[in-house]
Amino acid sequence: IKETHVAFLGLDRYMGKPLTIIKWQKIHPADGQPRFYSYPDDCYWHKDEKFANQPTCGFRWYLMPLQIVPDSESKTYQDQVAMLPAEYEVPFAVEEVGKCLLYHRKNGTFLNPNQYGRCQDVSLDGLRVDVGRFDFGGLVVDGWADEERLDGVGVAASRKYPNLVQP
User: Fold this and answer.
1) Measured at the alpha carbon of residue 71, what is the angle toward residues 68 and 77, in degrees to the nearest 5?
2) Where are the alpha helices (DSSP H) in 20-138?
3) Contact assessment for residue 72 and residue 80, using Cβ atoms and an 8 Å cutoff
4) Of 59, 48, 69, which is closest to residue 118 (Cα–Cα)?
5) Phi (first) and psi of residue 89, to 5 degrees
6) Is residue 155 within a helix (H) or strand (E), and if so which, with residue range?
7) FRET label pair with 34: which of 19, 22, 136, 159, CA 20 to 30 Å apart?
8) Is the peptide bond before 34 cis (omega within 30 degrees of 0)?
9) For 77-115, how does the pLDDT look when each residue is reduced to its tens digit (9 = 90+)?
């Protein structure tokens, strides 16, 4: 499993504040690595989106494949989800962001450098949130319609595990 997956402890808070995608961006400034492709001061589309400002990782262990699910590109989101084994689920974007950034911090390399992993989140305009593809040295958070069958857009996955602390 260590050749194909990464394990990490998901945290819901960092320095007392919710660890959202926006918080991940503040922790990883544009002049460092790993970094994001765009930041709130840029003209980036997700700065006011709920998925970027509210969800956090659950306080639990995550076991996630290093890459998108094999052969999941060029399929609709529904077809991609149907490919997942029963013990896996589609992660939220904040979980996929955490995986990518933590892996880079430990190993110095980017996961999915030319691909996006579709996540559970949907933007206000109905686009499925995708994470991956390190354009210009930064992690991209993007969105595509569920019906689109695109090269380079597969599905992300996470092993199902319970939270360590129940709300």
Assistant:
1) 70
2) 21-27, 50-53, 77-82, 93-107
3) yes
4) 69
5) -140, 165
6) strand 153-155
7) 159
8) yes
9) 999 999 999 999 999 999 999 999 999 999 998 888 899
Task: Find all residues with CB under 8 Å of 159, minimum gap 6, and list them.
Answer: 5, 62, 63, 64, 87, 88
Closest CA to 112 of 150, 155, 79, 148: 155
CA 114 to chain CA centroid, Å, is 14
Higher pLDDT: 76 or 29? It is 76
Do the bridges between strand 116-122 and strand 153-155 make them parallel or antiparallel, or are there none, so unpaired?
parallel
Query: 81: helix, coil or strand?
Result: helix
What is residue 133's predicted lDDT score, i.e. its pLDDT? 87
Q: Which two tokens stand for residue 140?
A: 């991209």
Nearest to 67 by CA among 159, 160, 161, 154: 154
Tell me the C-alpha to C-alpha distance, in Å, between residue 152 and each of 29, 43, 72, 119, 146: 26, 24, 9, 14, 14
Q: pTM for the whole thing?
A: 0.92
Q: How many CB atoms lie within 10 A of CB 85?
A: 9
What's the distance, CA 59 to chain centroid?
16
